[in-house]
Amino acid sequence: MPAEATTVPNTSHTPAPKLYEKVAERIRGMILDRIYRPGDRLPSVRELSKQSGVSITTVLDAYRLLEDSGLIHPRPQSGYYVHAYANLKPAEPMRSAPAPTPSHFTRDQMLQSMTHEVERPGLIDLAFANPNPDLLPLAKLARIISSVAREHPEASYGYGPPSGHRAIREQIAQRSFAAGAVISPDEVVITMGCQEAMCLALRAVCTPGGVVAVESPCHYGVLQAIHLAGLRSLEVKTRTREGISLEALEDALVEQEDKGAPVQACMVSPNFQNPLGSCMSVEDKRRLNAIANRHNVVLIEDDVYGDLGFEGDRPRVLRAFDGGENVVICSSFSKTIAPGYRVGWVVAGKWHSEIERLKHSFTISAPSLPQLVIAEFLTDGGYDQYLRRARKAYSFNVGRMSEAIARYFPPETLVTRPSGGYMLWVQLPECVDSVELYAKALSHNIFISAGVLFSVEDGYRNFIRLSAGKWSPEIEAAVAKLGRIVHQMIQA
Amino acid sequence: MPAEATTVPNTSHTPAPKLYEKVAERIRGMILDRIYRPGDRLPSVRELSKQSGVSITTVLDAYRLLEDSGLIHPRPQSGYYVHAYANLKPAEPMRSAPAPTPSHFTRDQMLQSMTHEVERPGLIDLAFANPNPDLLPLAKLARIISSVAREHPEASYGYGPPSGHRAIREQIAQRSFAAGAVISPDEVVITMGCQEAMCLALRAVCTPGGVVAVESPCHYGVLQAIHLAGLRSLEVKTRTREGISLEALEDALVEQEDKGAPVQACMVSPNFQNPLGSCMSVEDKRRLNAIANRHNVVLIEDDVYGDLGFEGDRPRVLRAFDGGENVVICSSFSKTIAPGYRVGWVVAGKWHSEIERLKHSFTISAPSLPQLVIAEFLTDGGYDQYLRRARKAYSFNVGRMSEAIARYFPPETLVTRPSGGYMLWVQLPECVDSVELYAKALSHNIFISAGVLFSVEDGYRNFIRLSAGKWSPEIEAAVAKLGRIVHQMIQA
After folding, report:
1. Same domain, yes or no, for A423 and A468?
2. Among A116, A199, A310, A413, whose CB has the most other CB atoms within 10 angstroms?
3. How many CB atoms lie within 10 A of CB B109?
């Protein structure tokens, strides 16, 4: 979890504050008073030393303390800056309060038109959840592709097994161990990305007409998959940082039971949910399993961002905890290695055989070459090193975009503080209609996702999701332009 | 269309037969009397010249006449052989007579276990419809893969458009012209092989609980797709060589209308149907469109073997004819270029937009690399040359397997005479249960498809489908072994 701006620094716990702690406290006060605003550069170490009459070392210690508390951050060769999070109100106002009515997803056509609009030349795409190409190991992958193409002609001439090639299933099983799950390669079914994984899981687990509980807000891909399976989504209040509210979930389960339409499955993304970037605690994961077992609800876990936490250990999947044997895990390499390969997977416990059959009926088998290329990349050990670099970069880029939003958007704007992934969920002033904002931004070649895509209600009209995996002067200019448009919409 | 063994040679139309025609007639008589049996080597030209007291030229002319009539064929450096077709009874007894009841497909589990069995080392696979690897342009594809991987990093880092990359859609549109259809690249949606194409088409066109008319026998992939969409299949009598019986189809449509459960769609494979290898005439295609329009039934055309006719021009798709504007075409490169790439497509007329949306919800987009590789292969012009070689080879290999069946199976065995593709549909004596034969063959590492897979009824129990794309002494030995097993089953 990233440090919180509003946390009182450690200094307050010590009986007699040291000199560097006093300096830090003074700077902190100026930030909270908005003398230094989010994104502002703080005085240089030398300047502050001179102003405060303290040593360079003391200033450095003070800045490090503020950095540890998450209030400021250094930029190489540039000095210290106020973190974007510093202006955030507490997360509570952003908590969702969805209506307790299961509904069908209705934004298919908006998504469809977006898939065409994104082809516009020169578009700055902040809408779709593409990983940052500059981070991906593309040169290495190209080399592996050539050697696999030479050495594995069967990747062309054979259909490949419906469950996928063993080499990649073994790698997935091995890597699941880091997420706390003991999985056999025989349990893994390779799919067309996480999207097909979710479609197959829903199809296997639910019966048409049923109800599936989801986080609110919820990635539209989940809502599409549920709708496609002939099911309705029931949005459940979700905390901006800690994930789905277990109290709200259990209330919803009980209420649906009382209505005689029990929830059949619950689709959750405990690790760096899209769009919130929230991460459930170990204790909440345990409790979620217990609730699901108690109410006979199948948990379908989307773990597609699980490898992209900003700090700390790889968070565990629900299967790692008591009662998690029947959690269906859906994931893919689309966010970490290459979306264009469309390699995902599902691990489905007691639904494995059914899912394997469904996979054969839908698409026979997945293309072989991308599977073998990713298996080779995972085998040769470059993945962890690459991930370390990517996680750091995403953390940095998400921070930069947060700062820019704080700088260019109206002050009442709220932004999530994700602990992984590369999405930002932005709450705009009430009067801003994000569908209108989407159209206005597009006319300036800036592409964003309107909040209404993340709900089956007409909720989140004044929210947008920004994909923050990349950062550049061009993107900063786009965020600035977006901010100006929002300002204009408020004044109008 | 291949020449028929039972056709009376042209000679009968001439007033006074010439000498070489008399010689040919004598040989023909000996073949029909089974003095020379299918697969037998005929006397050498020199021998026959000596025996008959005619010149070498006359014998050569006689053999060429018999060859033209399809009764015999030459093998290089070896002489002339009796064609397998020579012992076939007329096709009529193999005409299907399905029950007029829509049903669900129930052989999913048998197919699933087959997808595991096929992994057995040393298995001779005559079951699955894999193209012959020796024919595929694998070396060329491997070179293209390397260059595409280097030159198109976006194939890795982007999701790619839901409808597929323009380069391949353009090639598909261009090539459709050879099949008589004028198609714009904007109408094409790239899919995971023909299987996803069919699933999307059914989903767009039909409503759950509906009825879809199919050929009988029908490729199990079609029956799976229909079942998966929550629909029932209604098998319609299909002629062994000429495709679906239009009279039977119209009767079925009327009957279902009378029952209040009108047929919503008709899935047909007019060009080289799997498993029959039948090809509809131009006139029948015209009539099929008219019937569909008259009864408000959507035609979904599986054209996956359309490029693999043994001779003559590329047969036209239904869209090429009056009233074909709303035929949904489903196809793929899995039978022609590389099944492992899983590149298929759907051209859906007025359902295009709906199918594009469904595609995005199911699997977002298809993997980019295989699309770009196939586009490049099609662009550089090697495809037609390759196809000519492949069509010739399939024709030859299918002929060899037919001969072997005639030689090694009981004489009452019937075999189709496909005009394209590489499937043989074999009718065994009534008492032979092909599910039992499947198991017995598997215990000898020979893999076949039981006839029951090609029907939603329990029909075709004494049929098998053999995939005849390859030919080798090893495969001949497997066919011989199969024949012995069938002989034993009859005697038991």
Report:
1. yes
2. A199
3. 10
CA separation for the pair A370, A387 (Å, rounded): 19
**Among all residues of chain B, which has the CA nearest to that of A368?**
B340
Q: Which of A76-80, B150-154, B170-174 has the highest mean pLDDT?
A: B170-174
Nearest-by-Cβ selection for A360 from B111, B119, B162 = B111
Residue B33 contacts A where some CB pair is shorter than 8 Å? no
- Count of A–B CB contacts within 8 Å? 195
Mean pLDDT per 10-residue section of chain A, whose length is 492 residues = 34 64 86 76 91 92 83 86 60 62 92 94 96 92 92 87 95 94 96 97 96 97 96 94 95 96 98 96 97 97 97 94 93 94 95 96 94 94 90 92 88 89 94 96 98 91 96 96 97 86
Question: Is position A178 within any domain?
Answer: yes
β-sheet bridge partners, residue B263: B211
| A361 to B115: CB separation less than 8 angstroms, yes or no | no
Residues A277 and A361 in one domain: yes
* CATH, residue A55: 1.10.10.10
Domain range holding A392? 108-133+385-491
Structurally, chain A folds into a number of domains equal to 3
Q: Considering only CA atoms, give the Rg of chain B.
A: 23
Which residues of chain A neighbour B363 with C-beta distances below 8 Å?
192-193, 195-196, 199, 342, 363
Radius of gyration, alpha carbons of chain A: 23
Three-state DSSP class for A5? coil
Alpha carbons A397 and A470: distance in angstroms, whole number:
6
Q: What is the CATH number of the domain that holds A286?
A: 3.40.640.10
Strands A211-216 and A263-268: parallel
The token pair that represents B282 in the structure block: 């131009």
Is some CB atom of chain A closer than 8 A to the CB atom of B1? no
Do residue B246 and residue B230 come from a single domain?
Answer: yes
Other beta carbons within 10 angstroms of residue B76's beta carbon come to: 5
Same domain assignment for residues B260 and B391: no
Per-residue pLDDT for B211 more than 80?
yes
The half-sphere exposure of A181 on its side-chain side, counting CA atoms within 13 A, is: 29
Q: Helix, strand, or coil here: A185?
A: helix
Q: HSE, CB side, 13 Å, CA atoms: give it for residue B403.
A: 22
Is B199 within a domain? yes
pLDDT tens digits along A365-423: 999 999 999 999 999 878 999 999 999 999 999 988 988 898 899 988 889 989 999 99
Q: From edge to edge, which strands make up the β-sheet containing A423-427?
A: A414-415, A423-427, A463-467, A449-450
The closest alpha carbon to A361, from A212, A205, A199, belongs to A199
Q: What pLDDT score does B26 carry?
A: 87
A279 CA to centre of own chain = 9
Strand order in the sheet with B298-302: B188-192, B343-347, B328-332, B298-302, B263-268, B211-216, B232-239, B243-244
A 440-459 residues inside an 8 A Cβ radius of B: none
Q: Does B192 lie at the interface with A, CB-CB under 8 angstroms? A: yes
What distance lies between CA A288 and its chain's CA centroid?
19
Asked if the structure places residue B12 within a domain, the reply is no
Report how far residue B53's alpha carbon sits from residue A457's, in angstroms, rounded to the nearest whole number: 93
CA distance B180 to chain A (A): 28
Give the relative orientation of helices B352-363 and B193-205 as an angle to the nearest 10 degrees.
120
Q: Which is more confident, B292 or B22? A: B292
**What is the Cα–Cα distance from A257 to A262, expressed in whole angstroms?**
4
- How much is the pTM? 0.85
Which 218-277 residues of chain B touch chain A by CB within 8 A?
Answer: 221, 224-225, 227-228, 230
Q: Is residue B90 part of a domain?
A: no
Same domain, B116 and B151: no
Pairing verdict, β B72-75 and B79-82:
antiparallel
Residues of A in contact with B367 (CB under 8 A): 192, 340-342, 367, 370
**DSSP-based three-state secondary structure for B301:** strand
